[in-house]
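G., the chain you wanted modeled:
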Amino acid sequence: MKKIANISNLLFIALLTALFWPSTGRQIPWHILLVAVVIKAVVQIRQATSKNNEARQGAVDVSAIIFAALLAWYLATTRFVLLDTMLFPQPEAVLALFVTELPTMLKGLVNSLILLVSGYLLALAIALPLGLLVGWRARLFHAINPFTKVLGPIPPIVYIPYAIALLPTFRAASIFVIFIGAFWPIFINTVHGVFNIPKGLLDSARVLNLKERTLLARVILPGAMPSICTGATLALVLAFILLAAAELIGANSGIGWYVKNFADYADYQRVIVGIIFISIVVMTITWGTERLERHLLRWRN
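Predicted structure as tokens:
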């Protein structure tokens, strides 16, 4: 722990040294400095308030990686210009542009979340009860399982032409593509979660003469929850990947559309700005889902 903390501190000092090192015609990159100081402050607060040693160590590790990346990016594009400045803009220019473009990206984020949440929640609402039912009924499982093996691996983007042709709006077609991508991981993991429930637990539940609905809600669902959470996480990742493809269906805003649109015009400063913004959004949502998963699976502790 102390060794990693020392490395993080050394990288932080090296970054500050590079930023303040005298150079003709260059101003101090205040945006990079602010990011570095904020990250350092967050790590210090995390170390002071967290009782979990792994969480404290994780915060230090993450900060070390970020400091190393910022230092390498700054040196390679600003101090020594080792990279093509068109493809790899200077970090100070990117961070300054990030602040300027933030209102536009936040507006696009609202449109993206409407598509993402609509498709994902629809998949969750259909795949979860259907997976519980198919996993519980052996005859139904053997009837549907062959179709699952055929339809599950098909890339959802192949349905785009039919989605556009059959659904009334481009937004509905976009939601459908995300829905298809999120449906199969949730459904398949739910089915396997039901199958992996210990047989002794089911036999004990049957002795109590529980109704099937109660058995599914009170025994099967909690027992399959670890597998369901895994499928839901995979579905969320896949939904983010499909979001960019979905936003190409008649969209004129959104975080995926933002990156693709400026990439077509070779505006790589805004491309990197969009990538950073998407990373922050994904990190925030992932942080929330991890805590929700811990709450749902708190009985395992």
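The radius of gyration is 24 Å.

Shout if anything looks off.
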